[in-house]
TrEMBL record:
It comes from the Eukaryota. This is glucan endo-1,3-beta-D-glucosidase. Coiled coil: none annotated. Residues 1-19 form the signal peptide. PANTHER family: GLUCAN 1,3-BETA-GLUCOSIDASE (PTHR16631), GLUCAN ENDO-1,3-BETA-GLUCOSIDASE EGLC-RELATED (PTHR16631:SF13). It comes from Paraphaeosphaeria sporulosa.
Amino acid sequence: MRFSSTLIAAAALLSSAEAAYKGFNYGAFFGNNQAKVYNDFRYEFEAAKALPGTNGQFTSARLYTMIQHGTTKDVITAIQAAIDTNTQLLLGIWTSAGQTIVDNEISALKTAITKFGTKFTNLVVGISVGSEDLYRITPTAIANGEKNPGVQPAQLVKYINQVRTAIKGTGLASKPIGHVDTWTAYVNASNSAVVSALDFLGVDAYPYWETQHANSIGNANATFYDAYKQTVKAGKGKPVWVTETGWPVSGPKQNQAVASKANARIYWEDVSCSLIKGNVNLFYYTLQDIQYTTPSPSFGIKPGGDLKAVSPNFDLSCPKVSYTAPFLLSSLLSPLLLLLMYNLFIVSWVVHAMLSALSTEEPLLALPSHSPQPVAPSNWIARANGM
Ligand SMILES: *[C@@H]1O[C@H](CO)[C@@H](O)[C@H](O)[C@H]1NC(C)=O
Ligand SMILES: *[C@@H]1O[C@H](CO)[C@@H](O)[C@H](O)[C@H]1NC(C)=O
């Protein structure tokens, strides 16, 4: 039927035009320093896609390193897991530990390109060279007890150029290169050479930690958007991706910021939902952080326990766009407008229905008998052991 195929085409166009990346941050190891292996990453990526209330939208993963934890330069097993679960990747190159480690990161990146080819490169949405390294060298970070050395801006520019050279002529050549840092790093004029070297700016913003400001949950949305807008300004037209943000579900009070599930829900509804609506790339922090440790504060959407079995700590749905309000309002205005609104309503309803039908997730590949593990007394099991 021509009508419906046109609609499908329109819906497909609409969905590709609307494809901002939505995902989480995935560390390379658990809280006890145990390396995550293929099954762990795969389990996490599948759990993210199956989160209730999110329509399967969280299909992207930000990594901090290309290196499998505990090895010198083996490719991180998250890559194979991403390929097998069709998860988009914001790659990370760790730059807070010197040139030798960066060399190893680049070596692993090249190995992944050679080993996996387009199966890998087609999933890559960007490469972040570094993560909060400029923040780490500031007096604020050092006063906050930061122990990682970070990196000077001139050296970071060198690393960025090394990665650019490494991907030249490969399947990653056209992928944007960015860096992740705090808004304070981007507005700092001493770091302007870094901004100039980037294709996009990744910003990590946590109103909870903004203890110098009025940082209650009531101000959190405004505080977040202030950081975001400062970064946009510093970027001088370059895209800004939200690479980390979140509100803790538990932990100590920071100035006026109270960590609680209820406040995390408010933060999600205000900040995450508005970013999703505004089509901004978003990597929330985080899916689950109670994994063989008890972090305080804890930012996990999911509590401790078997990641797929436990329910989220708070509702992850976003407010629905209302069609009735403008529709009713229009009837007060003019009959013609009423007709127009009515037609728009029908079309958007049909497109929405088509989109939901199209986005129906394929059944997850069957994994070798995974049965939910009983939650250990310590409440720390993050995955199905023995998978
Ligand atoms: C500004 O950036 C420079 C270079 O990264 C850094 O040394 C300095 O501490 C930063 N200043 C502040 C106030 O953060
Ligand atoms: C959050 O801030 C943004 C940017 O200023 C604004 O558009 C949005 O309406 C705010 N949301 C809430 C719930 O205050």
